[in-house]
Design goal:
This protein is 33% helix and 20% strand. It contains eleven helices and 15 strands. The structure holds phosphoenolpyruvate (PEP) and manganese (II) ion (MN). The site of manganese (II) ion (MN) has 4 residues, from loops.
Length: 372
Amino acid sequence: MIVILKPDIDKTGPEYLALMEHLTHLPSIQVRRHEERGVHQVLTELYLIGNTAALSKEDIQGLPGVDRVVRISEPYRVLGRHKDDSRATHFDYNGVRFGQDTLNIFAGLCAVDTPQHVELMMKALRDNGQVCTRMGAYKPRTNPYSFQGHGKNCLPYVFELAGKYGIKVIAMEVTHESHIDEIRDTLKLTGNPTGVMLQIGTRNTQNFELLKIAGRQQDFPVLLKRGFGITLEESLNAAEYLASEGNRKVVFGLRGMKTNMGDPHRNLVDFAHVPVVKRLTRMPVCIDPSHSVGSRDRAPDRLLDLMHVTAQGVIAGANMILVDFHPAPAKALVDGPQALLLEELPHFIEDVRIAREAYEARVKLGDRVRAE
Ligand code: PEP
Ligand code: MN
């Protein structure tokens, strides 16, 4: 059960103290507090965990300081969509809105290699009106002898160049707690020229200790990739780990499933789950066409499979696109063969716009037909 308190309730005032006194003495019930600091107000939610079936929603609703009560039935207590649940399905970070009704493109380098390539990428994004990117500094690799990413050494120039070109959010994978500290320290050292969305990769979807650490901090939102060999439910539970620790600025990423049934694509494209995740949870949903398709193969209509697949995700309502680009793919140290070229960026953005418009038209059509 979620007890949503009146906005800006004074936590030292008699109303709040009386409410807590009552709730903490309920038998077999634990109370967990979550605070959401918005620009204009602080929202406090209390999660009642335990034998809540025995509680009356009306009684709790009548307690001092309570705005409303949501009874939750699903396992995703914090991130799930529950009946009569009007909590927000978006969050703002560094001036960018991430919601189930927005769409942000994160085009960028799979792995940072040189400052020149980073600058060319950032400049192309700025010239095409983009404020988000992806930049891999810490690369989890299958082979221990493969390039592992430049790590913290590249962070100062990546952040400074992002600031120079007006990039507000960089998606960056982390695989260890120390990476989060390095990102935080370097941002501070360089004067916070940009923002970072921590990415937890498919190999770490169920790394529960990493999830708890990324969930305990609230400086950075988190993009959690779906695990490539586990069920959707297991991956959604992994997202809930982040939220249950306090960070609900979570985006859920689809990146294809590992199976030969997807051949010749690198993974079996799973973007049919975009509307499913939006229905089950309040998270914005990201698609990663690059790691799903893994090649630059084209259909007979001359369009890249990568662009077809992106359009499929967007027309189904995706809210974020994580996509590999590179100024010189032949020189890329990771995933060059699946990278789009900088000169393909305007085409890609326009193709996404067409698919997004089609999605919006489909939603309107559905509403109209139902109203008739
Ligand atoms: C990536 O986005 O660079 C990546 C490694 O993705 P995934 O974790 O989905 O394989
Ligand atoms: Mn990659």
